[in-house]
Amino acid sequence: MRQPIIHAFFDEPTNTVSYLVADPVTRQAAVIDPVLDYDHKSGKASAKSADQILEKARADGFTIGLILETHVHADHLSGAPYIKLKTGAKVAIGERIREVQKIFRPVFNAMDVSGEGSEFDILFKDGDRFKIGELGGEVIATPGHTPACVSYKIEDAVFVGDTLFMPDYGTARADFPGGDARELYRSIRKLLALPKKTRLFMCHDYLPRGGRDHYSWETTVGEELAHNVHVHEGVSEDEFVKMRMARDTTLAAPTLLMPSIQVNMRAGNLPPADANGVHYLRVPITLAS
Question: What are phi and psi of 28, to 5 degrees?
């Protein structure tokens, strides 16, 4: 088995990890979950994080042909359109993006959104295979956090999106529209049925209270089975669902929830500009009774 070259890029404002994954022989590469730098207070955005990935690819002689989104992120805006513009790479996501679009299109009155996922270049089905040079890739559907969540297995490495976190932090929330704690548990068990030496790469890391003082984003199936605080070996589906649902009621909405969903369900593109040429993000207002 050929091991991929993996470079991680951590965006501390959103606690997001993006990856540049490359074939060491052909130098073909993919980017996973790129971030667009966005300041919610000012409405200003930049491509600083995406440029760091592009610069590393240039320095190492990599050609980026794929941008792999694990799901419609609710905590950061995607940098996929910028990387696509600079490289011509195709943007891929799980086929259940259609469901996510249909859930949120009416929320934002986003009538330009297709509901068919046509904003993306590739819609992956569970079990689909792809290549990065000569590296073999496989799509593993891992819904639960959102319906469209997928994990990408590239040789001995799996990029799990928000399905799992580091063992001392646990698992993703399942209370967003379309989320399902039971589905999440089954998705996690699918991942943890892989060989124990399989490397797992997180999309996020947060520092547990009273725990480690450094960010981490790589672990193994064996470590998760032995030590994950939510789904270690022996935790039943019912136990997990009870814990997950109770925990989710205590969680605040992500700071960038509203802008992220609007942009990311459009494959990272902004909503259409108004007549004055300016792009606007919408915030639905709900009055408390």
Answer: -75, 145
